[in-house]
Specification:
Layout lengths: L2 H20 L7 H12 L7 H8 L3 H13 L3 E5 L7 E5 L1 H6 L5 H9 L3 H21 L14 E2 L8 E3 L4 E3 L1 H5 L9
Antiparallel strand pairs: 1-2, 3-4, 4-5
Helix pairs in contact: 3-4
Length: about 190
């Protein structure tokens, strides 16, 4: 066994534990922050309880309780889908969006921002590879950005300016940068 590889795994776990320990602020628990972050970076098609469940790898019950808590705190809203009323669309409220300016993850982001560009690039590539390997082993979806999906079309007559070939929906430039539950790498 390569001790360096084990040390990298231990460092990753330790960073995660530091973040979890700091995530008990503003009357929230770590899972609440995870859902708020997810909603901030997910596209309109992926803001559903089942997508949150799949992304975070939690049980439906945990996600349901978490959404109820966030809704009671007026950090999210739930609205029925216009095509399928059984599906609930979840959105951040203005309060939820503003609370994310106090996100404990921002401390880690500030630490990353101090790294030289070449180290950031290597770290990004390495962590993405680890995550994809872990997701593949568990037969879970990647939830990547629309612009890197096999269904993403940048020259389609109905685009706005982009188009999702799977869902047959127009995509804005902002949409193309958000993560999607249907994403499949090119």
């Amino acid at each position: 066994m390569d001790k360096r590889e084990l040390y990298i795994a231990n460092l990753t776990e330790r960073i995660g534990r530091l973040l979890t320990a700091e995530s008990h602020i503003e009357g929230l628990q770590p899972v609440h922050w995870e859902v708020l972050r997810y909603l901030q970076m997910a596209n309109k098609f992926s803001r559903t309880p089942i997508a949150i469940t799949n992304y975070l790898g939690l049980t439906k019950g945990t996600v349901s309780q978490t959404l109820a808590t966030l809704n009671a705190k007026k950090l999210i809203t739930k609205t029925p889908d216009k095509f399928d009323r059984r599906v609930k669309r979840i959105s951040l409220t203005n309060l939820g969006n503003s609370l994310l300016s106090k996100d404990p993850l921002l401390r880690t982001q500030r630490a990353v921002s101090k790294l030289p560009e070449h180290i950031k690039e290597n770290l990004l590539e390495g962590l993405e590879s680890i995550l994809i390997h872990q997701l593949n082993e568990r037969d879970r979806r990647p939830f990547g950005q629309c612009q890197y999906c096999i269904y993403f079309q940048d020259s389609h007559p109905q685009g706005d300016p982009f188009f999702c070939g799977l869902l047959e929906e127009k995509l804005s430039t902002q949409d193309s940068l958000l993560i999607c539950a249907e994403q499949q790498y090119k």
